[in-house]
Every structure is written in structure tokens, then in C-alpha cells.
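Re: the 167-residue chain
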Amino acid sequence: MTVPQSQTPGTAPETLRATLANFATGVTVITTRDPGGRPFGMTVNSFNSVSLSPPLVLWSIALSAYSLPIWRAAAGFAVNILSEDQGDLCRRFASDAEDRFAGIDWTPGLDGLPVLPGAAAVLECRFWQRHPGGDHEIMLGEVIACTQAGHVPLVYCQGRLGGLRVA
């Protein structure tokens, strides 16, 4: 009997997760407005650039995420690339808190997208396309505005957060 590749010991979900933990990623809080107009956001490290022309970026969300319908209904999103001193925001927006924006200062960007102050950079996007990706949905956005503040970015690797200083 042949064992499907997805069930071999080298690609078991827990082994794959532990292996991928060795890949350092930036940390973002992706924000939008829910169908009621309230700000909504979540911590995401599956963010990546795709294309410069047209300017496209992507991130992904689990199909099991309770917030998937919010993202599917949204017209756009802001990618807040966190700075090294924003570990508290990373943890807050990764939590199960009902109102993650409670007590958080933010400003409305283009189309009213929530922008977090102190971020290392912000990309404001309109949804371009959505694609299936295994147990996730891949969200592509067209960048309509971007800014950078020059702060040291926050990174995540091997279960830890830290700043990345490039020499």
C-alpha cells in the first residue's frame, strides 16, 4: 500500500510546522472593516510580495478561521508591518479578544481602512483575487498606497519575537 505524500512522517503537519518555524518572517497586523463598519484585524505572518507591476501582495487565512467571512466580505485591507516595539500588538491581534481594537489608537487610511500608528510600514490594498490553497485561502491585494516609517521591523522565528537590524 502506498502512503499518500501528505501522510509521510516528513510532512506530517506537526513536523512541517516545526520545520517552517526556522524560517524567519516579518509580523503584520492585517486590518479591515467588518460588514458593520467596525475595525477588525488579525496578526498574520504569511504575508508576501507578489508583483511590482501591477503592485500585488498576498497573505493567507485558515479556512477554519471564524473571521473568514469578514475577509470575504471586505473590499480591501491594510497591511501594518509591525515595528520591533509592537510585540504587544502582535499578541493582542493574535488573541481571541472580541474587540481587539479596544483602547488602541488607529487612524482611517484610504477607504477607511484601519492604520496602526508606529508600524514600520503600511500597505493599503484593494482585494484583487482570492484562491484556494489547501486548508487556507490565499488573499491577493493590489497596493493602492504605501508608507514606511524607518522603524526596525518585528520578526518571528522559532516561536519568538524580536527586532531585525540589518547591517
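The chain has one domain: 26-156.
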